[in-house]
Amino acid sequence: MRPRYAVALTASLALVLLSFAPQLLRSGADGATPSTARVGVNQSYPVPGNGRYTVRGHGYGHGHGMSQWGAQGAALAGQTYRQILRFYYPGTDLANAARKVRVLITADTTSDVVVLARSGLRLRDRGAGRTYDLPTNGATRWRVTVGSGNNNVVDYQEGSTWHRWRPGGAAALQGEGEFRAPGPIALVKPNRTTRYHGFLRAAKASPGSTSRDTVNVVTLDQYVKGVVPSEVYTSWRPAALQAQAVAARTYAAFERAAHEARHYQICDTTACQVYGGVDEEVASTNAAVEATAREILTYGGEPAFTQFSASSGGWTSAGNFPYLPAKADPYDDTASNPAHDWQETLSAATIRNRYPSLGTLRRIRVTDRNGHGQWQGRVVRMVLDGSRNDVVLSGDSFRSDFGLRSNWFSFS
Hints:
- The chain is of the alpha+beta class.
- Helices cover 19% and strands 29% of the residues.
- It has 3 domains: 11-63 and 335-411, no CATH class; 67-97 and 224-258 and 288-332, no CATH class; 112-211, no CATH class.
- It has helices at residues 11-17, 68-76, 81-88, 220-225, 228-231, 238-258, 283-291, 348-354, 395-402, and strands at 39-46, 52-57, 66-67, 93-96, 100-104, 113-116, 122-125, 130-133, 141-146, 152-158, 161-165, 177-180, 185-188, 193-196, 199-203, 213-219, 266-267, 295-299, 302-303, 308-309, 342-347, 361-369, 379-386, 390-394, 409-411.
- The strands form 7 sheets. The protein has a 7-stranded mixed sheet.
- It is globular, with a radius of gyration of 24 Å.
């Protein structure tokens, strides 16, 4: 969720937003299906004479939990990070969390884990429970890959040639191989090289799997240092960055608890939280992580599901937990927020092409909203009235199909 919104946009809208958007914003973001309140409405919008609707809306993202722009607005108003968190996640408590988290590195699509040689590089055989110092032998790269019998083997590269290395004289590892070092390790991915804290593991998705996933095993604080600069503007006020650090750390702790047995517990994309490793770290966001070291939000003694999105538009949307209520959000209406109010043009022809069973689109009818804010809030249910058929869909589906910034919208 870096203020670069991770939502499908039309080409023209994308060009407009590139200069000012937080990247979400799933990130910590779209997990559980919200428990949506419904208020019946009867709002009808015939196709305009020129065939083009003006769509007006509020907010960016699902609106559950913290508004990232709202956190910045609250910080500008003098709120501390704890006050910001208390506003957006009412009823939660601050606590400390340690231990490591297992992060799937999705861009490493091969079954080998290749790292650049460096001093202090070590290899852990998780099956044998042994750790080996890798020699300084002129190697430029090391890799753990899949050998015969579906066992992990270790190679090193000199020039353009790979050679087999036998830890302790063994032809293969007894379990998963894992690179370790006293500092960051450079992972060679198909399209780029990225440095990571912690361990880099060649992990099996299941006991009989013949492929391997690259998993970064890293402390929560080291992980969050690679998340916060990818989710918000690094120039934001310290309190906003600190609130984001706690929300991101809590989200990771929640996912860790939910996927304790899986070979990874969280991914590195907007499907989870955007995580870029050491190379994404910035001094301002590192300071925010360190100022809130180990802090997470809990509810009933367990990590909270701290969803967040770029902008609430002035009302947060209810989620599936008591600490994710629908509530008025005065902080979101900060002067620099480009998504608090927005407008886009959408043609009837575009809608018809997406749903050809309609025939000719005659009108759009909104039948249910969530009851909060202008137009009675976010669209829950709507009907596209066609000459041949009607199409009934949710506001979320309409938003997704046409690249709108949120499901809080209306038509001229």
